[in-house]
Design goal:
Elements (H helix, E strand, L loop, with lengths): L1 H9 L2 H9 L3 H8 L5 H13 L3 E6 L7 H21 L5 E5 L14 H4 L12 H17 L4 E3 L7 H12 L6 E5 L5 H11 L2 E5 L14 H17 L3 E5 L3 H13 L8 E5 L4 H9 L3 E8 L4 H10 L1 H14 L1
Parallel strand pairs: 1-2, 1-8, 2-3, 3-4, 4-5, 5-6, 6-7, 7-8
Helix pairs in contact: 1-13, 5-7, 7-8, 9-10, 10-11, 13-14
Catalytic activity: L-proline + a quinone = (S)-1-pyrroline-5-carboxylate + a quinol + H(+)
Cofactor: FAD
GO molecular function: nucleotide binding; proline dehydrogenase activity
């Protein structure tokens, strides 16, 4: 399978330099990441919302190594929210955030001396509290302009922290969403809990390299898990967000929604910017809520490589472009 190989390349400095230097790379990257700054992205936001689409915005950049970088990530989202307020587009555009950007993976400043010689260890190691402190102002600002934030899922070792932060934020901002990944064994139980709590939940297949001890490895197993989990969400009390470009899964989602008696505004589809744009418009024209996951920023490499890993067609597109344009 090429996916794990590509994901390994996403963590390689040598591959980053090689791919970044390729003449065709910017042209191909622009297909998925249509800008580096807020000013770049405003015309995209206007264009998509004018077409009846909604958006979720991701400021790319996950390789956070300092508290200052985590603060800068927070401020980048606050800048975006300020622009959305000026544009009066808050209700049409939400935010997607990765807690790693907000410092979740940083070492904890708490020491044994801080806790006392026999004091309890913190419930979560690393930068859990820092990530919560940084993301809360973003969630507050988003709520003030009539929109919300969804916490993206990352690798399985981060999820207990992510769900704890999600639960904490929902005490004051119950519209805060989260992402679950169908390929993880734990996700069916997570889905039952979240569906019962009335949360907003985006279901995706999963794009991180996970060991066989925690995740399905075969596509057909992941697809079957996706359908089981989606049924749980559709029959529950929450708001399902179907994150998929798979025509078969989209059809199944529509049928599950119908059987569950859901109206068109009681769930939504989400797809990536640059992939199946005609399908975005088709679903919106049929009256579905269709949200386009749109990323921007300068630190695009990790995001771009995961898009290649997720879908073989993306990789073929990139390789063909390198051959014909490089």
């Amino acid at each position: 399978m090429l996916g794990p190989v590509i994901l390994a390349a996403s963590r390689s400095d040598r591959m980053r330099r090689l791919i970044s230097a390729a003449p065709v790379t910017k042209q191909v990257v622009d297909r998925f990441i249509p800008g580096e700054t807020v000013d770049d992205i405003v015309p995209i936001i206007r264009d998509l919302t004018d077409k009846g689409l909604e958006l979720t915005m991701d400021v790319v950049g996950e390789d956070i190594t300092t508290r200052e970088q985590a603060t800068a990530a927070r401020d980048a989202y606050l800048q975006l929210i300020d622009r959305l307020k000026e544009l009066e587009l808050g209700p049409k555009v939400e935010m997607s955030v990765k807690l790693s950007m907000f410092g979740q993976a940083l070492p904890s400043p708490t020491t044994a001396l801080d806790r006392g010689p026999s004091g309890p260890a913190p419930a979560f190691q690393g930068g859990h509290d820092l990530a919560l402190a940084n993301v809360r102002p973003v969630v507050e600002a988003a709520a003030a302009i009539g929109t919300t934030v969804t916490l993206d899922a990352e690798d399985h070792t981060t999820l207990d922290s992510m769900f704890a932060i999600h639960e904490e934020l929902r005490k004051d901002f119950p519209q805060t969403g989260c992402v679950i990944q169908a390929y993880l064994f734990r996700t069916e139980a997570d889905a039952r809990r979240l569906a019962a709590s009335g949360s907003r939940v985006r279901l995706v297949k999963g794009a991180y390299k996970e060991p066989a001890e925690v995740a399905y490895q075969q596509k057909h197993e992941i697809d079957k898990a996706y359908v089981r989990i989606l049924r749980t969400l559709m029959e529950g009390e929450g708001y399902p967000m179907i994150g998929s470009h798979d025509p078969r899964l989209i059809s199944i989602a529509q049928e599950l929604a119908r059987k569950a008696g859901r109206k068109l505004d009681e769930y939504e589809f989400q797809m990536l910017y640059g992939i199946r744009g005609d399908e975005h418009l088709r679903l919106a024209a049929e009256g579905h809520r269709m949200r386009v996951y749109t990323a921007y920023g300068t630190d695009w490499y990790g995001y771009f490589m995961r898009r290649l890993a997720e879908k073989p067609a993306n990789l073929r597109f990139f390789l063909r472009s390198m051959i014909t344009k490089g």
